[in-house]
Structure formats: C-alpha cells, structure tokens
Amino acid sequence: MRINWLFVVCAWTALAALYGQTATETVLHSFGNYPWGSDPYGMLTRDSAGNLYGTTYSGGAANLGVVFKLSPSGTYKVLHSFTGGSDGANPCAGVTIGPAGNLYGTTNRGGSANAGVVYEVDASGAGDGALQLHRRR
Question: Which domain does 109 fall in, by range?
Fold first, then answer.
C-alpha cells in the first residue's frame, strides 16, 4: 500500500489548525564549547528520575566529545570527556541505560586501532573513567 504523504501532511496541518494547538519549544540547555561539549549527536536517553543523558561529538577536555547528564532542574554535568586513547573519541550515537544504571555507547574513533570502542560510563558521575568493552575490528 502506497501512502500519499502530501495528503497526510495536509490532513495533519488542517487538524492542528482546527483544534488551535500550537507547539511550544523550551530550551533545556544551550551547548557552548570546551570543556562542556559541543555538537550534540544522537538520541537522548531518559531515566526513571527524569534525567536526560546524551553525547556530543566534539568539545570536552580534548575536543573529542563528552557523555553528559541533564537533570530535571536543568543542571548539566559532564560524566566523561573522551581523550582519544583507549576510551575512544567522537561518539556518533546516544547512550543506553543498562540494568545496573550504567550508560553504554559507541565512539567513532579511538581505541587500539583508532576505529572506535563500545564504552560504559557510571551514570551517577562518581568517576570519570569510561571502560573500553570491545574494539571494532
């Protein structure tokens, strides 16, 4: 079955106008640059407490990206700043939360072959050590 997307868009627009609903945007955090991270990349992940977790492709202490946490009150914290060594560099995806509450993700570069890593970060921010779990071959 082929969907006529123009019809779908027009119908949606007409319904929105009919009900007078307008979308509003609220900026939760505005990225700067070093050392806080810049160029956010990938999807955000939300935990049960309402914290948002994500990554930036660049910025951070070595300008190689960060993993960050944004609390419901708006507090922004860098959980890990990538160095480009065994911890990886330039994450190109968001993170996922594991059963113990740690964050898992991938980087585009870094690791022993400079081909990226799968990493784990403590979501509480208690440490700044990303653990290399797997090297791409």
Answer: 31-135
- Smallest CA-to-CA distance from 69 within 39, 86, 88, 94 is with 94
Structure tokens of 9?
């868009």
Tell whether 103 is covered by a domain. Answer: yes
Tally of domains in the chain:
1
Flag whether pLDDT at 16 surpasses 90. no
pTM given for the model: 0.78
Q: What is the pLDDT of residues 40-60, one digit of tens each?
A: 988 999 999 999 999 999 999
